[in-house]
Amino acid sequence: MIPSILPTYNRAPLSFEKGAGSWLWTTDGRRFLDLGAGIAVNALGHAHPALVETLTEQAGKVWHLSNLFEIPQQTRLADLIVDKTFADTVFFTNSGTESCELAVKMARRYWSDRGAPERSRILTFTGAFHGRSSAAIAAAGSEKMTKGFGPLLPGFTVLPFGDHDTLREAAAAPDIAAILVEPIQGEGGIRVLPDVCLKGLRDLCDETGALLIFDEVQCGVGRTGKLFAHEWAGVAPDIMMIAKGIGGGFPLGAVAATEAAARAMTAGTHGSTYGGNPLGCAIGARVLEIVGDDAFLAEVNRKAGALRQRLEGLVAAHPEVFEEVRGTGLMLGLKCKPPAADLVAAGYAEEVLTVAAADNVVRLLPALNISDEDIAEAAARLDRAAARLETAAA
Ligand SMILES: Cc1ncc(COP(=O)(O)O)c(C=O)c1O
């Protein structure tokens, strides 16, 4: 019999009832070190006092207002994003998938508005993940996500990751609206696009006029030690998708864009019932105030260095388990030799939570404010998890 929850997830038999900082407690009283943070969502860990305060304060005032009215919390968060990024304007969503939908619509509308509606094709890359809507699965193109869901939304071409010649050729076609890319592929296995490639993509888009869309749903909001990952490369997109960390655990996403890219999105062209609600935006603004602070980001970088050093030590100590460490800041991956899922399971036994990704990588996406003590504890638990796999293989 089908369970009451649609069985689209293979869930671990762990049930958590309480969280604080980087720790989660199960209903049977065990304490787990959370290095997954809800897949890069709990940017400030669990039950951060400032976010609890903002949530409860706003909950006592007003939760939801239609976008038919002014929402000051929304304006405040939009102003913060505009102030801290390349963007001139922001639309709020509830998830990364919805941000993908709008990014695609905005790029197509941009060309339609310029009298070139045939420029509707979006170029993407293998290993990408942009969400689970019809547009987002067509954008990523992997059979795992698209099988059985055809006909796929047309107008997407998925190019081989890292193949510059094929990209140049594809981008020269007359129907290209935009190039959509994650500066660091998350689900794809923490595959970092080198700065030179991000710069190359910017140049290519400047040459052809195509819009450049960065999907910073997973790598944004301080995760890499800059507020947004593309800042490391010193280039900016025309449109950026945001979600996950921006809400610190509250469902919140956004699309940030330049005025030129967004100009055709006039009244009535897009909307959302919940997107930009006062609760979400009040929390988002608090998250951004904390994470966007230079001193906070400096700490993320320092901690990222400490965690990375310990992970390099683990790779050296367990050559049969680990191949390498990848990633930037606190978006790190351990490329494994045995199945990545086995390391995740061994982690459960050692009461540490990690997240598997493609390319046989285990992701570490801890809270950005993880303590030095918890970083040491993370390494100790992962060391024991790796030892379990060695014992099992012996
Ligand atoms: C890079 C990227 N884009 C988009 C999404 C989709 O976001 P959501 O699950 O909030 O719809 C994700 C989710 O993992 C993601 O990692």
UniProtKB/TrEMBL annotation:
Its EC number is 2.6.1.11. Keywords: Amino-acid biosynthesis, Aminotransferase, Arginine biosynthesis, Cytoplasm, Pyridoxal phosphate, Transferase. CDD domains: OAT_like. The keyword Disulfide bond does not apply. It is an enzyme of class 2 (transferase). Pfam families: Aminotran_3 (PF00202). This is Acetylornithine aminotransferase. The lineage of its organism: Bacteria, Pseudomonadati, Pseudomonadota, Alphaproteobacteria, Rhodobacterales. The gene is argD.
